[in-house]
Amino acid sequence: MRAICVLGLGLIGGSVLRAARAAGLPAWGAADVADAEAASSAGYTATADLGEALRRAREEDALVVLAVPLFAVDDVLRQVAEHAPRCLLTDVVSVKEPVANSVRRIVPAANYVGGHPMSGTAESGWSASSAELFHGAAWVATVDETSDLAVWREVAALALACGAEVVPVAGAEHDAAVARISHLPHLLAAVLASVGAAGGPLALSLAAGSFADGTRVAGSDPELVRAMCEGNGTALLSVVDDALGKLGAARGALASTGSLGATIGEGHRGRRAFDAARQARSAQLRIDLGAPGAHAALAALGSQGGRITAVDGTTAFGQVPAADPAP
Amino acid sequence: MRAICVLGLGLIGGSVLRAARAAGLPAWGAADVADAEAASSAGYTATADLGEALRRAREEDALVVLAVPLFAVDDVLRQVAEHAPRCLLTDVVSVKEPVANSVRRIVPAANYVGGHPMSGTAESGWSASSAELFHGAAWVATVDETSDLAVWREVAALALACGAEVVPVAGAEHDAAVARISHLPHLLAAVLASVGAAGGPLALSLAAGSFADGTRVAGSDPELVRAMCEGNGTALLSVVDDALGKLGAARGALASTGSLGATIGEGHRGRRAFDAARQARSAQLRIDLGAPGAHAALAALGSQGGRITAVDGTTAFGQVPAADPAP
Fold it and tell me: Please, which domain of life does this record's source organism belong to (chains A, B) (predicted)?
């Protein structure tokens, strides 16, 4: 039973602490005074002394989970370097390459595998955290040819204990994908909310389902959204260009032929592909984490939209989308 | 008790027929054979013979409700001109100026006031219709200085009987507002779904709340979405330019300074304005529909985000957002 030390007890970190303890793992956390007190009052082991939490992690060989916003990562890593420089380390930050670069620079001896649970709410902070936040969600655990798969297995085991399914993927591939399906949605929600509000009281009075859904995430804490999107700026820039190209093409078609058929048809097919991807995955497979080619097998599973649903000893058990039936 | 004749029994028309009968109004409908049979099987009076339904409307001086997609409006209006050329007439089509122009051209003697209930689901057709669809929703009833307010009152009474609240607004103002809060959301949802799906199985496997919400309406019937957006092409074009400008500005800021603060901050304020607009409206007012200035008073109420919540004799009772308390 690997102990868990969570640094940062906001929505995600707080939920990791709750879920880990609910799964029976020894778990404690460190956070700012307000969150640490709130967690303590709720019966969890939490301190505002980061060094104390990290020294205990070193003594108990815990998995340290970095759960602070990207702009605070370097500061916290310097504490890790001071108190537990060789620890097992993961994170739950929404971008993976910048965190991996910081870890290499600041805590080079740490045994690090990046993580990212794909869950959230419009709320933030310890008060919004929940042991159920990750149930059924995807939880990325990064993998490339240099990854230590024993460490990867520890991170996957935590994600599974929290009720998530594990998606193995290279950091850069993760960052490109989340720019598309998480950071662009936040940016488009902001643009839509701005354009809608510019219509004044009448427009907001008439706004209903499509506007409410399309702008929901614009209600999230703008500083957190900003940090998340800006932290993945390079990947996001390329995806924003895709969106500008498609929206510009729609504009051109509307102004010339008056037709939005191509835009709306392609969007409808995209949404149907998303719905189909959420259907049952049925092809089962197992990956021996000690075998040659295990790294590539994990990455291939993630790329195909597969998930690891259990780990046992040195074996990972997964599911990948079944091939389409013959036409 | 004004009788109601609904032409078209899809999601909206079917829901009007159900809600009107639930409110105790004499009501019947006409539709294509499939929807007419489905409505008849459910115990409603429905026919596939448009002429028959319209002749009854003329005999009973019913309010005729045009509930077909924009592309079918002219054909159905020709039937109205043949069978009930002087009827009370309204519609539930998502754009108002093009319908008003068709009515003036094809049924110039009709007593017409445009309507638009701001309700919908991703589903369509009679099978998705419901007597509760309009509960608490906004229902536009167009007004300008030439409107016959006795007809306007009949349309408002139907909307109120269906459980909606009435927003009086000029047709062109309606079309500009819905371009912002209904048609642009559909277009951005299509763009987002396309860009997301272009990320392949990995991106769709990682997609969660923000992508699911932002693309929900891309799951709607693409032909209906297309007809709705293209039918409001002129107003939509100007709003798409606003969105392109804001998304382009975000792209420029990201590429130069790396900051998305302006975009995300403005979006957050827009969403908060939307949330605030949904709070209780508290200033009450009454408008004498027979008094000079009634047209302007109705239009002003709509422009301020107000709603008419009852009509009685020749008086309309409404609510407008209370002025902000003094700072």
Answer: Bacteria
